[in-house]
Structures are given as C-alpha cells and as structure tokens.
Amino acid sequence: MTEKYDVIIIGAGPGGYVSAIRAAQLGKTVAIIEKNNAGGTCLNVGCIPSKTLLEHGKKVHDIQSADEWGIHTSNLTIDAAQLTSRKVQVVQTLTSGVTHLLKKNKVSYYKGEAKINSDLTVTVNDETLSSQDVV
After folding, report:
1. 8-17, pLDDT tens digit by residue?
2. Please, are residues 43 and 22 in contact by the beta-carbon 8 Å criterion?
3. Rounded alpha-carbon distances, angstroms, from residue 122 to 38, 39, 40, 97, 113
4. Quick one: CATH architecture of 2-134?
C-alpha cells in the first residue's frame, strides 16, 4: 500500500526538518526521510560535537592557568571516556529535540535510505510513499 503525502522531504538536516515543520504548519501532510539521525551532519558529527569538545578543552586550559589567579590546582586528570559520554549526551539531547519538533508538528518520520523510483514514488524500508512534491 502506498502512503500519500502532500510533501516528502529527503534528509532531516537543518534545511529538511525546518522545511518539513513549516509545510506541516501550513496544513500539508508531510513525510521526512533520514538515513541517519535527525539534525544533519552539523548536529550529529560536525559543529555540535566539535564545539562540545572545544569547550572541554577551554575548561582544561582555564584550570591549568588558574595559578595566575592564585588558585592552585594540581593532579589534574582528564577522563576521556567521560568527555566522550558528555559529547554523546549533548548530541542525543539536541537530536531528540528535533525529533520531538517533527512529532509535535505531525510530520511522519521515516528512518532509512530513500530511493526515488521511476514512477516518482519514494521507497524507504520496503514502504512506498507518494507525493506531488519531493524535496
């Protein structure tokens, strides 16, 4: 059976999920398809994870230079596993926020790889979707 939507969006990065939410707010039935996690490269493996690790590095630097302020710290240790865990937690929190926004706006979310067929339907996870507009 083919699920029909007004709009199908492939990719749940910043352009995709914002477009999906806006289309839904305008009264369209919307499906979004993402092969990885919602939020795109920046949120999942780029900007956000790297900025989280950079912030950790800044904190270490501040602690190491605290002697200049009369704050004496010694035996500073860094738990790489805990830093990585924190980075993962930050990403998961933001990703779940994107997923929540999609759900709140009644956007149908499909996790899997999209394939556009010759009849202009879209297949994902053995399901077939159709729409006049595929973005």
Report:
1. 999 999 999 9
2. no
3. 19, 21, 20, 26, 10
4. 3-Layer(bba) Sandwich (3.50)
